[in-house]
Amino acid sequence: MPPTLASVVRNTSLHLTVLAGADHLERPVRWVHTSELDDPTPFLEGGELLLTTGIKLGRTAAQLQAYVHRLADAGVVGLGLGVGLSHTEVPQPLVEAAAQRGLPLLRVPEPTPFIAISKVVSAALAAEQYEAVTTSFEAQEELTRAALGKDGTTAVVRRLAARLGGWAALYDGSGALSVVAPDWAARRAGRLAAEVDRLRRRPAPSSAALQGRSPGIDTADEDYVVVQSLGADRRARGFLAVGTEDRITPTERYVLNAAVALLTLTLERSRELRQAEERMGAALLRMVLAGEVATARQVAAGLFGGLPEGTVRVLVAGAGQGVDASEALGELGDRAEQAGSRVGEKLLVAREDGTHGARLMVLALDNGAVHRACLGVVEEHEGLSLGVSAPAALEEAGTAHAQAERALAVALRGGRRSVDHEEVGAGSLLPLLGEDAVTAFAEGLLRPLREHDRTARGDLVASLRAWLSRHGQWDAAAADLGVHRHTLRYRMRRVEELLGRSLDDTDVRMELWLALRSGEE
């Protein structure tokens, strides 16, 4: 702790007397400054004990009061007036002005040189800095030993909480609480979900300080909270929160920074190892999709603890043209793995960069934690879409992958966040086709009929739609239109003449129906 005015006054070798502001002696002294200027504030930073003999001080009460106000407004923590030179005693108006502003006023006797006071404060500041360095070094050693132990991250969090005299909590990359110490702080740490979520949307590393108290905490449980994201490549791998009764001191800040560095290294692991694991997982997924499930099981048994067992789904995530989804896909992969690890759920992940842009494939249990986590991520990222296959056995993963790709195509063309294969199978063919291509095709094919309807009698487009919807049944279609069947036959012959196509051709009927339906979508 830095020296305070109280500790300076208690030094009996200085023989200082407090004349005003005795209730404010716990203020920390950051420096001692000597000045005989009437206005020394341009040369002050705040936190100083100002010493003066009062040579340039005014003699009137108004002048002395103005002098005190200037010092107090500049953040001076105390004023010491040396008597025996300009003033035989401290002027009473100065004492009254200092008492009014709550500025501690010290009487410095003639035998006490100002430099003696400076030496006392300087020695205390040096001792504080030495203590800070020593404490920081000891804390770093302690935290490092904890990180290298069996329960690395948990031990670091517990040691950090003990060092700060408060509580600490670690969250994974999705914002879920994973470690908290002491145990009683779980409720407080849980209330930081919104703040952690805000940091999760910002590039790492980043931090937030909640001065005053934790959100939702009772007044009796006031905390000063700092939340820090953990990550070295802009993607947060986790989050660390600490809560203390008072604001964090510079020494405690060093300790916190050491913990952040150690936890970041632990969460990041070796980059080469992480990339190797990703490549192996991607290779296993491709083996499964290619139907080599038995071989994939043998390989995964030793490296990944096995493959997902039971009913699975394949999920394929991607973005539309012109959308850079690299970070979003990276977060999707991270969140999927974190969701799986929390509940012990197996999954396989692979990323591809092809002609259709970046894609992320995930094979996971049907409606499991990973499946739900992926759906949650795509809802958070504009432009990112997800195609989900139908439930399938692991041996049918290749078919499921094709289903997921088709569902993703529908989601991207429709501007939807996610589409299940069941929706594609139960819906229309139109969403699977490019909107621009379908529109151009329909306009070109139906243009002769639309031009006829604008310039001549007879609603050929409506008649064609009614006839096709009734599968060529003349009486039923004519009844729908409210015309005689001979009139409808005449109109259909006119359609054939204008289009140069026969309505007896099944392909022609299909194309016309597709063109008519495209205008309804």
UniProtKB/TrEMBL annotation:
Cross-referenced InterPro entries: CdaR-like_regulators, PucR_C-HTH_dom, PucR_C-HTH_sf, PucR_dom
Residue ranges constituting the Purine catabolism PurC-like domain according to the UniProt record: 8-124
Name by which UniProt lists this protein: PucR family transcriptional regulator
Taxonomic path: Bacteria, Bacillati, Actinomycetota, Actinomycetes, Kitasatosporales
A Pfam family assignment: PucR
Domain PucR C-terminal helix-turn-helix: from-to ranges: 460-517
Protein's organism: Kitasatospora aburaviensis
Superkingdom in the source lineage: Bacteria
